[in-house]
Amino acid sequence: MTKFNAWNVIKNGLNGQSYWTRQWRDPEPKSSYDVVIIGGGLHGLATAYYLAKNHNIKNVAVLEKGWIGGGNAGRNTTIVRSNYMMPGNHEFYEHSLKLWENLSHELNYNVMFSQRAHVSLFHSPGAKDSVSRIYNIMRLHGTDAELWDLKTLKKKIPHLNYHNSRFPILGAAVQKRAGNARHDAVAWGYARAADTLGVDILQNCEVTGFTRKNGNIESIQTSRGIIKGKKIGFAVAGNTSVLWQMAELGNLPIESHKLQAFVSEAVKPLLDQVVVYGVGGAHFYISQSDKGSMVFGGDLDWYKSYAQRGNLPMVQDVAEAAMAIFPSLGRIRLLRHWAGVMDMTMDGSFFICKTPISNLYLNAGWNYGGFKASPASGWYFADLIANESPHNYVQNHNLERFEKGINIDERGAGPDPKLHG
Amino acid sequence: MIRINCPYCGERDHSEFSYGGDATINYPSLDASEKEWTEAIFFRKNIKGFQFETWHHSNGCRMWLVVERSTVTHEIKSVKPCHPDLQKVVKNNK
């Protein structure tokens, strides 16, 4: 694999770009591995990378039923932030943000991480108090957080709708180190870096069944043959329940819902930040990609679904929210929209934990927030698989927390997965 | 758009309804163990395929319905009133 550096760019520039090697190998599956990660999304690839990098476990396979970047890795709005307040969550997401800050160097791949600020608007004194509390908790834990008053906000983003009399903008809660990144590049970067360390990335390799022996999973039946794994990790987002039942493990505190993302035609530079607007039943977040497209999204489609396509009422809902806050987008045309299947949990927080099967580990329940979490998710999931015990930050992110009554519910929305947006 | 054939009002767009959730949960008795209650409140089959689920006709007759719907294709096989006694009434009136 050719390293990306100035010398290689010049050399290949003079040689008609003919010496670049492929980004990752396309190996045949071996019969057995030390660790098999099921799911070649950002979380699975990051896990494989950190297993090899941090724990020197290099005999690892990542099984992907489709192709790298074809699932939720390519179906998100690319927002990276760490504005969480619950114990465990804020340390975890802050660590993720720190990993993002060095990710391009770490992977030798430009993930185009842009710390352009995450600006969350508030529209009432109550909302200001509520968000101030969360952002003060963040500050107490060393995460950057600040409030912008109306004057600052108008100077920074002059073209918001400041004349909305129903929901007047009073200011914004801002995390300046937050921003966004290029989602494909993150998937490719992790795949390439993991492959360089010896990880086998097996695409078009769908899991069809498990063979159990002495309570453990001995081997995995796949569309590319039988693969043995000493340890097995699930990192399959919306399809977790399907695999869980394939392993005869029963029910999970997860429902699969779909979330849409939208991309408009490219326009000249219009928006320097990630802006979030959430009020009166609306939920809307928007940023501008480096190509110039407006990238935005809204709520879930509000009913359980495994279909990777969105419904039209939500398109209308998101368009209405866009017009309420950014009237200047009125004439912009939508290029694409698609839906990803989210693993929504009963308290809105994730699982990085052991399972009833001793050689099986679970990484799931990322709700809306899987993209930003992927580096830390890989980091702590690899740590769990290698060391057999969860790191302090994720010690309560397990399946037993509901029975113990230590739900990690940021929103306080209760046990209804679709409400944890 | 999913079209739901409400037994009281007729066929309507799904945007008139609110999704409830799994219609097959049996809540245990009040003195059941914490494990049973945890299972009923927090754990789901999360079926990929046809499932029974509740919908509320919140912008219509405001009745709760049990819908048999595929979570993959969104095809609907049946729509019935939630309450078994009302199922009989609706049946007798047709």
For the termini of chain B, the CA-CA separation is: 27 Å
Report the average pLDDT across residues of chain B. 94
- The shape of chain A, in one word, is globular
- Gross geometry of chain B: globular
Q: Kindly state the percentage of residues in helix of chain B.
A: 10-25%
| Biggest sheet strand line-up of chain B | 3-4-5-6
CATH fold field value of chain B: Folate-binding fold
Count of individual helical segments of chain A: 11
Biggest interface, which chains? A-B, 26 and 26 residues
In percent, how much strand structure appears in the residues of chain B? 35-45%
The number of distinct structural domains of chain B comes to 1
Superfamily (CATH H level) name of chain B = Folate-binding superfamily
Secondary-structure class of chain A: alpha/beta
User: How helical, in percent, are the residues of chain A?
Assistant: 25-40%
SSE string of chain B: EEEHEEEH
Multimeric state: heterodimer
Report the count of strand segments of chain A: 18
Topology:
The complex is a heterodimer of chains A (421) and B (94).
Chain A: H1 6-14, E1 32-38, H2 42-55, E2 60-63, E3 79-80, H3 89-101, H4 103-107, E4 118-122, H5 125-140, E5 146-149, H6 150-156, E6 171-175, E7 179-180, H7 183-196, E8 200-202, E9 207-213, E10 216-222, E11 225-234, H8 240-246, E12 254-266, E13 274-279, E14 282-288, E15 293-304, H9 312-325, E16 334-345, E17 351-354, E18 360-364, H10 370-387, H11 401-404
Parallel strand pairs in A: 1-2, 1-11, 2-8, 4-13, 11-18
Antiparallel strand pairs in A: 3-7, 4-6, 5-6, 9-10, 10-11, 12-15, 12-16, 13-14, 14-15, 17-18
Chain B: E1 3-6, E2 10-13, E3 18-22, H1 34-42, E4 50-56, E5 64-70, E6 76-81, H2 84-93
Antiparallel strand pairs in B: 1-2, 3-4, 4-5, 5-6
